What does this fold into?
Amino acid sequence: MAGELDTFPRLLLHHAQVRPDRPAIREKDLGIWQTWTWKQVEGEVRALACGLAAQGFKRGMSLAIIGENRPRLYWAMAAAQSLGGIPVPIYQDAVAQEMVYVFHNADIEYALVEDQEQVDKLLEIMPQCPKLAHIYFDDPRGMRHYAQTELMSFDNLQAIGRDFDGRNPEFFADEVAKGKTTDIASMFHTSGTTGNPKGVTHTHQALIAAGRAGAELEGLDPSDEVLAYLPMAWIGQNIFSYTQSYVVGFCMSCPESAQTVGADMREIGPTYYFAPPAVLEGLLTQVLIRIEDLWWGGRKAYAYFMDLARRVGGRILDGQPVPLKDRLLYKLGNVVVYGPLRNVLGMSRVRVAYTAGEAIGPDLFVFYRSIGVNLKQLYGSTETAVFVCVQPNGQVKSDTVGPPVKGVEVKVTESGEILIRSPGLFREYYKNPEATAEAKDPEGWFHTGDAGYFDKDRHLKIIDRAKDVGRLADGTLFAPKYLENKLKFFPYIKEAVCYGHQRDRVCAFINIDFEAVGNWAERRNIAYSGYTDLAAQQPVYNLIRECVEKANQDLAADPTLGGSQIHRFLILHKELDPDDGEITRSRKVRRGFIAEKYAPLVDALYGGKRECFIETQVRFEDGRTGSISANLQIADAKTYPVEAAKKAA
Amino acid sequence: MQHARKIGEPILTVEGVSLSFGGVRALQDVSFDVREHEIRAIIGPNGAGKSSMLNVINGVYHPQDGKITFAGKVRTDVDPHEAAERGIARTFQSLALFKGMSVLDNIMTGRNLKMRANLLLQALRIGPALREEIEHRAAVERIIDFLEIQAYRKTPVGRLPYGLQKRVDLARALALEPRVLLLDEPMAGMNVEEKQDMCRFILDVNDQFGTTIVLIEHDMSVVMDISDRVVVLDYGRKIADGTPDAVRSNQAVIDAYLGVSH
It folds into this structure.
């Protein structure tokens, strides 16, 4: 066996040797946390790899992996890598037809999936994917009557593997030794905001380098804990859990189900945590709802201590000087408010928390830092194996993503686009040399498509996607995402979509947060039958108008963006949904698609109409379609004169 | 979905059952049988006598006439407690859960009949009682996993939405590990998605545990998809009995559902 720890299988064998009895992975099952040690994981991966080999899986082949975070699916990644194969994790909530392209593109013959739901999808697309010949499933529930010869249970596959291993005891070690650090370790698919997703391939070298750079920066060690709760198909999940767990040797835990993540997190108490802004926002919304339900004194105490935290909490976390009186009061607040709050959020032990994926609203960001959670921003993408820029401890600002990580070079072109060169860079877009050439120039610089610049401290500041930044008809800068984020900070607003490029003013579509607004309505005895009904009610419109006007007031203080205040808005009759293609699976709004789909609504906003009828096709989770129709009213919002730099008329 | 499970001999036979409350004749000379491992539906318009039929099987009502044979034994005047001990569990149209108790505790009550240790040991949680409790808890956890209600283990039942309460009710009935499961309008008051979920759970229970299922519904479409055989009642009489296809094309059934005057 090669001594170098430069591939994932070799890292696994290393941990099985130096820390055989330390926990490697946990899963909550039947109400109890089940644990596997590194030694046990090695055994499981070995049996699985041998099983795949006995089934004809060879070096260079792809193994599709589809499901929630489950230990067995992570073992499948390691097993495929042990054989020199390429694991291809796929979003588990994708509908069958969305998977066809990926199966074609990655030449997938083997798939290992979680359960019957995923098996059904693969059986559905099988006629379109003639190469797909082997499907293995983890959970046998409901699978007893499937007679298809392509199917086999995980347990059987491992049994075959153990048998194979018994006859070829050298096989596994030989295969692991054959692996090269420059082999492709994984393929991830970009979210596909435009066109088909692209298969991004990473070598062992790149992933391990990126994972190691991050681990060194934060001083991660084998006693750290992480909860794997985001989709396996997303590279961040892979880096923060699988890659760094293998690089450092810490334990990752898989939640019982997607609905129990909150409770599971409280039980595990992760020390290392990642959450995209949408998740942080959801958590905060839940907190705010519960605070509103408190008795009078509780609400007052919360308001008082949160006000204090906003003033001094971030500075205390950064180790900056704070007056003694505030410091003592903060200590008291820590006992009565911040500590319990962190506990409820499952963040009592969090040492390092990251957020990325979308620009985070400053208020949201400051909230977590002020209660003592060391939340930091990070910048990266699928192509860059996540770690490009990270905010160092003590130098955290709400509007930048920090300086480049060690080993990463960043430069900004004249047009404002950010270019990156790093050891963690992807190898290529699988079978797509044109796209690879377009994104990666001959000198190895990756063109991110993000617009940004370095501030005076050499911290990178991202404004928006380069192509999304626009201008109003009068030339005022229009950064839609900036406006949408401002709106989304209000607990009552779940999503917002702003339009204004080359228009005379900005208008917005709003999605209310059903939970928060529902709760608000119940306390006011407003009856409603469902989302569509609630969204159309006049009191709800008034509530949202207040939010929009508050956002406008904030904007007015900003000389560059003050001109892009929101003049009119409407509340959509349905929630934006990835199944309808309106937002990506990673919850980014697809502005252009929405504008096309709801063209009559956009026309009504700009045409000055008071209301507009709309009928929309919706797709249910099982793939059937139906329609929702509503008569939407359109509301005007007050705008405010821009402070300071008045534009020369 | 193909059914590879073996449908066995009749496990439950109802012969000539008549039940009346004073002048109201709820059931008149109804006969049918339920075979082991099958899903048997009893359908009919409102007031057809479906719930009365279930209550007769369950031992809540004692029919004036007729004979019920369960697992080879003719039963006379059993009460619900005995029926449960013999392996007949049921869910309720109007739910019979302890609203203030957690989901977990509610399902644990379903294990009550299976607890052997005496009350004192149970209260002290020592010796055999502790071992037993762990065993029962494991059984309950398997059901929680099966019905996918892990997220609500500790939630008081009263705070759950109706569709989930129905699932907890099913879980409580399953905790008894019954041979025959009686479901009283399991889909009533649910939206389309909840109905689909419930159908899947019913099929899975039947498939995985081989539980014989008798269910009542007045929504015909749902029942037709999942039942092996269907009995149709109207005004207390059996008007049809057979496979879903046969029943669907039966003129008497169509008339009953379209409301032809009698």
Remarks:
- DSSP finds 21 helices and 27 strands in chain A.
- Residues 645-649 of chain A have pLDDT under 50 and may be disordered.
- The first helix of chain A runs from residue 8 to 18.
- The CA atoms of residues 615 and 629 of chain A lie 4 Å apart.
